[in-house]
Design goal:
The protein has 295 residues and is an alpha+beta fold. The chain is 20% helix and 37% strand. Strands 2-3-4-1-5-8-7-6 form an eight-stranded mixed β-sheet.
Length: 295
């Protein structure tokens, strides 16, 4: 895939994981995905923030847990905006909450941590020098972001108001978040993308998809949140490797429309999805969660 150089407002653009022991997480993910790391915090800083790269391109980061946060390790989703302060106002007007007030990350950008009305947390990112993930959809890089929610209709109202998102219905009753005009942006970067998607059997409008939305299933914990999916060449091999490195497989590899995927927790408990694109699976029917390549 061509290297990304920025995003448009309303598109998930970056992921990082906050960990009690960042160096242990660096060791795990470095071995799992082949990431190379650089701690970009000033020398002597009490916090650590390791940028992960593949072939020199930024893919994600591992950082210390913010002061005052809970002990749980987690993956965080960042959404690109033109103005963090204006977006925070939109979040509040739409019934969301501010978990971390806007602040500047020197030279890199400006951010805030917010949540939707159900409590699903995410970050807002106003870029300066750091323009999000440069490598996506390749092995070991960001592939997709997804919202789990107990109230899809309320989520549609909130994210539509804040980011202008709409939903795209897929066969089987699934829905995706779509941002009108996003396909035009992608087509400029990758000429012929719409044609390639059509040839692969993607539904009309799929080029505008930015994330997934899934209701919390009956019997699942009522914990709304955003999850992160990484592309992999072999979901089964990644699941086995994660276990060998001290992680846990929460959902063994299984086939779903378009993909074969697995759900993994790293040794400190941060959950993520690993997904292999399998075009032969496009017409599969499933009652489970679906993750689709192409963010």
């Amino acid at each position: 895939m061509p290297e990304r150089d920025g995003y448009i407002p309303g598109v998930p653009c970056w992921v990082d994981t906050t960990q009690p022991d960042p160096e242990a997480a660096v060791d795990f993910y470095g071995r799992l995905f082949g990431w190379e790391f650089e701690d970009v915090m000033p020398k002597g800083s009490p916090a650590q923030y390791f940028i992960a790269r593949i072939g020199g391109g930024d893919v994600a980061a591992v950082g210390s847990q913010p002061e005052g946060s809970g002990p749980d390790a987690r993956w965080n989703t960042y959404i690109w905006v033109d103005s963090v302060d204006e977006s925070v106002a939109k979040v509040l007007n739409a019934g969301g909450n501010v978990l971390g007030e806007p602040f500047d990350v020197p030279n890199s950008g400006r951010m805030a941590t917010v949540s939707d009305p159900s409590g699903a947390a995410f970050c807002l990112w106003q870029a300066k020098e750091h323009k999000g993930a440069q490598v996506v959809n390749d092995h070991g890089s960001l592939n997709f972001n997804g919202l789990h929610t107990g109230d899809p209709e309320a989520a549609k109202a909130f994210y539509g108001s804040v980011f202008g998102w709409e939903t795209l219905a897929l066969p089987g009753g699934f829905e995706m978040w779509a941002l009108p005009g996003y396909g035009d942006h992608l087509e400029r970067d990758t000429p012929g993308l719409r044609e390639m998607m059509a040839e692969a059997g993607a539904p009309e409008g799929f080029e505008n998809v930015v994330a997934s939305i899934a209701p919390i299933a009956e019997g699942e914990p009522e914990v709304p949140g955003w999850d992160v999916t990484f592309a992999v060449d072999d979901a089964d091999a990644i699941a086995a490797k994660a276990v060998a490195l001290g992680g846990r497989v929460l959902a063994p590899p299984f086939d779903a429309p378009w993909v074969r995927m697995t759900v993994i927790a790293d040794p400190q408990g941060a959950m993520f999805i690993a997904s292999k694109y399998v075009p032969e699976n496009k017409d599969m029917a499933t009652d489970g969660e679906v993750a689709v390549a192409g963010s």
